[in-house]
């Protein structure tokens, strides 16, 4: 029986396949433009729920217009099949790069984080949460640029409560089944950033229960990261969503302040060059190499971590019990999924060439798609194959693709269909603001009431404004900040600004109150003995 293909495209070769379908490299016959086509498998196409999710992914991609998010050319649904036609790019996954390199220097790690955060920021502005950020879903192109892919289990902000994502990168609230939040994407992006810097995941439990407890309760392992970027790790991996940057755009602002202060105004250019050099070590993994497609069947797993000297407290053991039940449910869900797989099949892509006009030379070899399952932990994970393209995307999960025309002959279009691909506009990188360089940070704390204290913060800074993170502590020993009491962030106006005061109500019973302030890679701390305690 002949396999159905999208009319108007000539298939070149298969880039990958999995339980949800396959991704192929194809050429649009009218323009010669190479594209990635993701086909939903025949088995899943017979399930209306899968078809709705596949269609929803196409609508989402159609509403996102950003150089950091893959562009949608068209969605075609006919009696014989369903397919998403996407922009194609030459690139490899961050997972493949880390497998080869082990880890990266801070500058390329910051470049990867910034590029994919800009893709997340576009989705967040549109009210969409990715829910499955991880190295497999970040693409590094040949020029060292980085992009976010795979919106297969994305959801509207505040909707879809339930456990969804990949265990090693799931935020505490995801483990707890709370609704989708941009702060959860920030957490997953920070976990990936930590892995780039250290070569390991921030938490490595040997089962779902242990991993859940570590994400919910274990201290953030910031000391393993280079000192200048530790404020980003502390903020991004904070246990409570309200203690993290509220969305990806806010996190980008903090990232740029830290990067410029620690590594100078040229950090991004150097980091991109280093990334390009690392990617060049894996030429056969680029779609343009024309190699045989790799298998894409995979199973979500967690690695066994060495003992870190941390043990869960009472809340942790309770969470462990809950998580054991959760883990059992997830295993059953995955077993069920093996009967009707919903694994994510990813096509990674970047910028597509402009289709040639009449009389123009045919395009040269063009970017590719690297396909591979993006296993998720969600029992309702949708089949996801996304490609990547790029920066700010204003999208909505309910918006129809913007291209309109008559459907292909014989096709029943349930989403808008456009037979001739028009490459998405590539938005140039915005001109950077003048660099913000923090020279020093100082803080003093004083007691203002029985349980209240006040910190006075001064930042010596060139340029501005600059984000400042304030952390409060209570303890029983001088020289040790003790237990964390909370975190807040404010924006210091910039050069020449007056000191800023922040107040806090302490709930701990320790005799010492402390505060630590971080800005632009610099930090300072102070501690006082409270009036309710006396020296003996």
Question: Could you explain the architecture of this structure?
Answer:
- The structure is a single chain.
- The chain is an alpha+beta fold.
- Among the domains are: about 95-300 and about 310-335, Transferase(Phosphotransferase) domain 1 (Transferase(Phosphotransferase), domain 1, Orthogonal Bundle); about 435-530, Immunoglobulins (Immunoglobulin-like), CATH 2.60.40.
- It contains 11 helices and 19 strands.
- It has helices at about 40-45, 50-65, 95-100, 105-125, 170-175, 180-200, 210-215, 230-235, 250-265, 265-280, 315-340, and strands spanning about 10-20, 20-30, 35-40, 70-80, 80-85, 90-95, 130, 140, 145-150, 155, 345, 370-375, 435-445, 450-460, 465-475, 485-490, 500-505, 510-520, 520-530.
- The strands form 6 sheets. A 5-stranded antiparallel sheet has the order 1-2-3-5-4. A 4-stranded antiparallel sheet has the order 16-15-18-19. A 3-stranded antiparallel sheet has the order 6-8-9.
- α4 packs antiparallel against α9, α4 (about 105-125) crosses α10 and α7 packs across α11 (about 315-340).
- The longest helix is centred in the middle third of the chain and has 26 residues, at about 315-340.
Tell me the CATH architecture of one domain.
Orthogonal Bundle
Strand order of the largest sheet: 1-2-3-5-4
At the first level of CATH, the class of one domain is Mainly Alpha
Percent helix, as a range, is: 25-40%
CATH superfamily of one domain: Transferase(Phosphotransferase) domain 1
Order of helices and strands: EEEHHEEEHHEEEEHHHHHHHEEEEEEEEE
Cα end-to-end separation: 89 Å
Outline the low-pLDDT stretches.
291-309, 322-433
Q: Please work out how many helical segments DSSP would assign.
A: 11
Secondary structure category: alpha+beta
What would the CATH topology of one domain be?
Answer: Transferase(Phosphotransferase), domain 1
Mean pLDDT equals 74
Radius of gyration: 24 Å
Report the β-strand fraction as a percent range: 15-25%
């Amino acid at each position: 029986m002949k396999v159905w293909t999208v009319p108007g495209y000539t298939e070149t070769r298969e880039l990958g396949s999995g339980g949800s379908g396959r991704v192929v490299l194809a050429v649009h016959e009218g323009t010669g433009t190479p594209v990635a086509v993701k086909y939903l498998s025949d088995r899943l196409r017979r399930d209306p729920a899968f078809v709705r999710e596949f269609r929803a992914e196409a609508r989402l991609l159609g509403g996102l217009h950003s150089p950091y998010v893959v562009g949608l050319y068209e969605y075609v649904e006919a009696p014989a099949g369903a397919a998403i036609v996407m922009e194609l790019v030459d690139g490899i996954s961050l997972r493949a790069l880390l497998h080869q390199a082990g880890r990266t220097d801070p500058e390329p790690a910051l470049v990867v984080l910034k590029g994919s955060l800009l893709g997340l920021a576009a989705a967040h502005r549109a009210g969409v949460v990715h829910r499955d950020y991880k190295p497999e879903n970040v693409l590094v192109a040949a020029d060292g640029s980085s992009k976010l892919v795979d919106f297969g289990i994305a959801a509207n902000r505040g909707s879809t409560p339930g456990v969804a994502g990949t265990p090693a990168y799931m935020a505490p609230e995801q483990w707890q089944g709370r609704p989708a939040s941009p702060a959860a994407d920030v957490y997953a992006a920070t976990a990936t950033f930590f892995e780039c810097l250290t070569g390991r995941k921030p938490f490595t439990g040997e089962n779902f229960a242990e991993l859940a407890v570590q994400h919910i309760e274990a201290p953030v392992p910031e000391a393993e990261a280079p000192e200048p970027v530790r404020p980003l790790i502390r903020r991004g991996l904070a246990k409570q969503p309200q203690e993290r940057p509220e969305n990806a755009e806010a996190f980008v602002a903090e990232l740029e302040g830290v990067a410029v202060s620690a590594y100078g105004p040229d950090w991004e250019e150097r980091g991109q060059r280093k990334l390009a050099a690392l990617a060049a070590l894996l030429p056969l993994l680029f779609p343009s190499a024309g190699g045989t497609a790799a298998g894409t069947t995979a199973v979500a797993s967690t690695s066994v971590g060495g003992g870190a000297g941390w043990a869960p407290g009472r809340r942790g053991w309770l969470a462990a019990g809950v998580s054991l039940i959760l883990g059992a449910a997830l295993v059953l869900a995955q077993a069920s999924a093996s009967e009707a797989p919903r694994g994510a099949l990813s096509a990674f892509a970047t910028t597509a060439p402009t289709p040639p006009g009449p009389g123009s030379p045919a395009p040269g070899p063009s970017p590719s798609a690297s396909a591979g399952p993006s296993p998720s932990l969600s029992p309702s994970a949708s089949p996801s194959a996304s490609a990547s393209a790029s920066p700010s995307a204003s999208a909505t999960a309910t918006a129809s693709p913007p291209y309109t025309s008559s459907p292909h002959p014989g096709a029943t279009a349930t989403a808008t269909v456009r037979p001739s691909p028009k490459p998405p506009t590539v938005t140039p990188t915005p001109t950077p603001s003048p660099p913000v360089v923090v020279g020093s940070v100082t803080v003093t704390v004083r007691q203002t009431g029985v349980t209240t204290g006040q910190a006075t913060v001064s930042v010596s800074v060139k340029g501005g404004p600059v984000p400042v993170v304030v952390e409060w502590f209570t303890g029983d020993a001088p020289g040790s900040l003790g237990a964390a009491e909370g975190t807040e962030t404010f924006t210091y106006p910039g050069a020449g600004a007056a000191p800023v005061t922040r107040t806090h109500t302490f709930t701990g019973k320790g005799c010492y109150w402390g505060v630590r302030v971080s800005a632009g890679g610099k930090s300072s701390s102070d501690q006082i003995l409270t009036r309710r305690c006396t020296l003996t």
